[in-house]
Amino acid sequence: xxxxxxxxxxxxxxxxxxxxxxxxxxxxxxxxxxxxxxxxxxxxxxxxxxxxxxxxxxxxxxxxxxxxxxxxxxxxxxxxxxxxxxxxxxxxxxxxxxxxxxxxxxxxxxxxxxxxxxxxxxxxxxxxxxxxxxxxxxxxxxxxxxxxxxxxxxxxxxxxxxxxxxxxxxxxxxxxxxxxxxxxxxxxxxxxxxxxxxxxxxxxxxxxxxxxxxxxxxxxxxxxxxxxxxxxxxxxxxxxxxxxxxxxxxxxxxxxxxxxxxxxxxxxxxxxxxxxxxxxxxxxxxxxxxxxxxxxxxxxxxxxxxxxxxxxxxxxxxxxxxxxxxxxxxxxxxxxxxxxxxxxxxxxxxxxxxxxxxxxxxxxxxxxxxxxxxxxxxxxxxxxxxxxxxxxxxxxxxxxxxxxxxxxxxxxxxxxxxxxxxxxxxxxxxxxxxxxxxxxxxxxxxxxxxxxxxxxxxxxxxxxxxxxxxxxx
Length: 473
Prior knowledge:
This protein is of the alpha/beta class. Helices cover about 35% and strands about 25% of the residues. It is built from 14 helices and 23 strands. A ten-stranded mixed β-sheet has the order 8-7-9-6-12-13-14-15-16-17, sandwiched between helices. A six-stranded mixed β-sheet has the order 18-19-23-20-21-22, sandwiched between helices. The protein has a five-stranded parallel β-sheet with strand order 3-2-1-4-5, sandwiched between helices. α1 runs parallel beside α4 (about 95-105), α10 (about 340-355) packs parallel to α11 (about 375-385) and α13 runs parallel beside α14. It is globular, with a radius of gyration of 22 Å.
């Protein structure tokens, strides 16, 4: 291949794998390395045919690549990072590459906020697609309408999920500050990423900085159901269009009706009827996601019919309330939720989708924030939305002091004291065995983790199938 050689350290991350695909689509040579790569990114990288070294070693950087892209989950002490520094290789962060290779010169549509970024970004891309724009994009999950999380095209639009997390060990600023925003959606803002933000005020400051770099000709679409969003958008230099369920919102959803097929809702703009829309998604948070896209797509000139068609034909995102199996009357769902609010609203949405069925939440404290004790009271409130809570062990507990670390056993005890059956287990095999004994036809099991949870999904599916086979013998 012509063009420079990019080597991606930590290529198995969702965004890094997508960047690898974008670089490959541009005709560049791409290699990568990672300690562990699991689906769906392992499947994506296999399809792309990108060489991946398992484990981090200096020899992975020989001969020297033109650019070394360092993932934000990696830090000093990594053998490849140490070699890159010693050899004075040209190293960059993921958002730097995105800005210079793909975003500059295009209309940048950035979707930000604590929750709903991946779904809203996927909806936004699909709305532009239905409007005939064929945008380039990078999403933090596999958009089912495309079967991928990236695309490079000649479109004037680049749509990107704008994460407030830091960019790299050498750039502690938020990723979204690199994305040259023109149109920005800001969904609800809450305290998150407690490992890098000391409090909510620090999170607000990050979002204010994003809003401060939107040009005057740009556009800000803001969730006015979030008091924090209303506060931080006050200093915007560009036009602000609000959305939400509250009466003060410019774009408002009313008459929300949930059926087995999905959700129907009425939209009004400044009090005037716009139309009735349908989405296969459920949950008020997803209605807000749809409202944000309706407002943003309208601002970009997409016709209402195309927007309605996009919402109605949206196929969601991999690992967002994704039904993995239906076995002997038991429904197994996979979801990426790991923040307490995301867990709560996901469980509430599943209540709407599966009324009168027992809802069992199986949770892995895996993300940097969910492993912290400071989030434990919020998780207690969140899991009250389930009939039964099953808690796995904290992922890599050794990197967090016991005083600062969430305690699954204490969380389970607190839930039981409030009348909710809850159990904490030390490993995946224990969880699978407990679920095997617990589950009966009609149950809905949702597995909540931002990782692979030790292969729990596949192991539980196998166990349930074996149980079904034994009963038919």
